[in-house]
Structure formats: C-alpha cells, structure tokens
Amino acid sequence: MDRDLSEEDSVESLSFEAESPLAPPTELLERLPSYEWLLHGGGQQIFFPPSEALVRPPEPTSWSSFLEHRVPVVTEEVAREALLSFVNSKCCYGSAAADDLIIRELRRQTLCRYRLETFSESRISEWTFQPFTNHSVDGPQRGTSPRLWDIKVQVPPMFQEDTKKFQVPHSSLVKECHRCHGRGRYKCSGCHGSGTVRCLTCSGAKHKARQPRRCPMCSGSGRRRCSTCSGRGSKTCATCKGQRRLVHFLQLVVTWRNSLFEFVSDRQIHCPQELLGKAKGENLFRDENSAVYPIVDFPLREISLASQRGIAEHSASLASRARILQQRQTIELIPLTEVHYWYQGKTYVYYIYGTDHQVYVVDYPERYCCGCTIL
Q1: Mean pLDDT in each 10-residue stretch from start to end of the chain (375 residues)?
Q2: DSSP structural state of residue 64
Q3: What is the rounded CA–CA span in Å between residue 278 and residue 260?
C-alpha cells in the first residue's frame, strides 16, 4: 500500500505540542524553501491520495436462503416482562399498570437496517516549529523530502479512528525566533519592563488613607515587585522557551476516519429512528473488502437503493480528500412489536424493539414526575 522508505527517510512521531501562542509571520514562511509539491500558501495543504482500483468484480448473491430467516416472535408474556423491566429501571414509574394491564393486540413486524462503514485515510501537511535546543536537525542537506503519500506510517486497526502527527524527513530549518527576535526574553507587559507596579494597598500614596504611618505592604515606596515577572522586568519567551531560535519543519497530519451511512426500512411506525439505529439486530448479510459493490436484487428494493446511495455518497465525498482503505456493509433484521394494551378504561401503546427487547413507551399511565426521560 505504501512504499518502504530508506532508513534516512523514516518519519518521527510527534508527541509534543508544536503549537505556539504566536504564529510566525507570512514573510518568514515565504523565505523558507518552497516545497512547491508540498505546500502552496496558507500554511496548510491537503493532498490528493493515489487512486485505488477495485480489487474484485461483483459477485451475484442469491437471497433465497435469507428469505427463510426468522427472528423469535414476541409473545404476550415476553411483552409484559419487557415492560416490567423497563418500568423497574425508572425511579418515577409505577409498576401497578405494568402488572394489571390487559394486552389487546401485538402488531409484529421485522425491519431491515442497512449500514455502510467506510474507513479512510487523509493526509495534510503544515508548517510548525519548536524551540531549537542545539539538537541534530534533519534538513534539506540530507536529501529531498518524500512526497506525503510515499511516507510509510502504521495504520491503526480497521474502522478505528485515530489522528497522528509526524515530522516530514529533510524539511527542518533553524531560524531566529520571530517573537522575541532572538533575545530569548521580552518586556513584561505587567510592569512595562520596570520590575515594579503601583501598590494596590495604598494606591501608590505610600501610606494608608487617614493613617500617618507608611504603608506596610510597600514599606512606604508606593510600589511593589511585579508578580508577573517576579521583578525581573522581562519574561522568558514562551515561543522559543528562551532558546532564541526555532526549528521550523513540515508536519504530516494523518487522520483515519470511519464514515457511516445508515438506513432503516420504513414501515410507518412511530418508534424514533434514532432508537432503531442503535437497536441490536440479527445479522443477515455482511460484506467487507477494500471496496464493496452495491447490493442488487434484495427482496426489499429500498435496501438495494440505500446500498447504491450510500456507496455513491461515500465515494463522492472522499474521492478528492482521502484514500479508502476498507469498506464494510451489513444488513440486519430488527424485530419490532407494537403493543396495544388497556388499563383503567384507556388504551395505551408501547414498542418492543431489538433482539434484546428494549422498550419505548409513548404514554405510560403511572408516571409521577417529569424528572426522567422515557427513552
């Protein structure tokens, strides 16, 4: 996937924070070697990854065996136990209704949830710097900097997001600190370089109001030592940490991101889609490869269309800014039961969803406060 570099071109992982409270001026960056293929103004550049061809042709799938798949049916006993478990987990729900309700109807249906995960890698480069401590510098004199997609980095486990920073080989240059102009220190803003500030106790009057004796806090001088610089009148430069020089270098920022496309078949239900998206289902189909093809001829046409749409959206959004490393698409069956029950002369409804029988209550009759959520 990535070409091996020579020992000279190995990348160094950056564990330090190279950010500074004050960025170098634009004219300084312009004086640094241009690295036209790496950077084109603005201090940062996104690079297009090499295109990857699909590794295999699509294979026809027979859905006949999938159609025979069934999930366990929710009975009245299971429906009542699920509601009782839900009610007992809520501090302000009474259990009397769950114990005494009369179930009138169980409307069972099975939804299909399609998911597409696309694991991609993107790379950007940016100028950054750190204090120069007379350490060895890997500059242009050691060779030409490799192109960013030629730099080999360790890829994390598939579908696990991460961001890492590396120093681009042979891109380091030592320059005078742009903030303190090579002095290592700068004038204190608290005392303006004098080392003392007006005494707050006597307001610089040298003695307290209506008291003839001198102010004990400043010994009658009217001024006190500046606490910001400890009386020195200057502070160590925060940018170069007093080292007077900075080493500028190109930093490679590699981001691994997992993009998710999700679709749940619509059967005109009132259970929130976000709950169905998190529900536990039973796996029906799984396809994982460096590139997956759209599902065709699935019994539910909306699932086939969702697969086509998801793959097209991910390809379009990532084509110009990232390289796709792996894709995974799944179809899961999500059981859903709409329970209609009668309690004290009124009809209510709740939903049981997922293979672990989670409950969503629309309007529970014994709720005593509004302090907890019904989701």
Answers
A1: 44 49 59 51 56 57 63 87 89 81 89 94 91 91 88 94 94 90 86 83 69 76 82 87 93 95 81 82 91 90 94 91 94 92 90 92 75 47
A2: H
A3: 13
Report the chain's C-alpha Rg in angstroms. 33
At residue 349, what are phi and psi to the nearest 5 degrees? -145, 145
Residue position matching structure tokens 């730099």: 151
Please, which residues have CB within 8 angstroms of residue 311's CB and are 6 or more apart in sequence?
A: 116, 292, 293, 294, 327, 329
| pLDDT number for residue 229 | 85
Whole-angstrom distance, CA of residue 83 vs CA of residue 2: 54
Q: What is the DSSP letter of 278?
A: H
Q: How far apart are CA 136 and CA 24, in angstroms?
A: 22
Contact 186, 253 (CB under 8 A): no
- Burial of residue 133 (number of CB atoms within 10 Å: 0-12, 13-18, 19+): exposed
Phi, psi (deg, nearest 5) at residue 76? -60, -40
Q: What is the β-pairing status of strands 173-176 and 245-264?
A: antiparallel
Cβ neighbours of residue 55 closer than 8 Å, sequence gap 6 or more: 289, 290, 291
The residues near 284 (Cβ < 8 Å, ≥ 6 apart) are 66, 69, 112, 330, 331, 332, 333
In three-state secondary structure terms, 322 is: coil
Helix then strand then coil, in percent of the chain rounded to 5, is: 15, 35, 50
Q: How far apart (Å, rounded) are the C-alpha atoms in residues 218 and 224?
A: 6
Q: What is the pLDDT of residue 310?
A: 96
SS3 call for 91 = coil
What is the DSSP secondary-structure string of 118-184?
EEEEEEEEEEEEEE--S-----GGG-PPPPGGGS--PPPSTT--EEEEEEPTT--EEEE-TTTTTSS
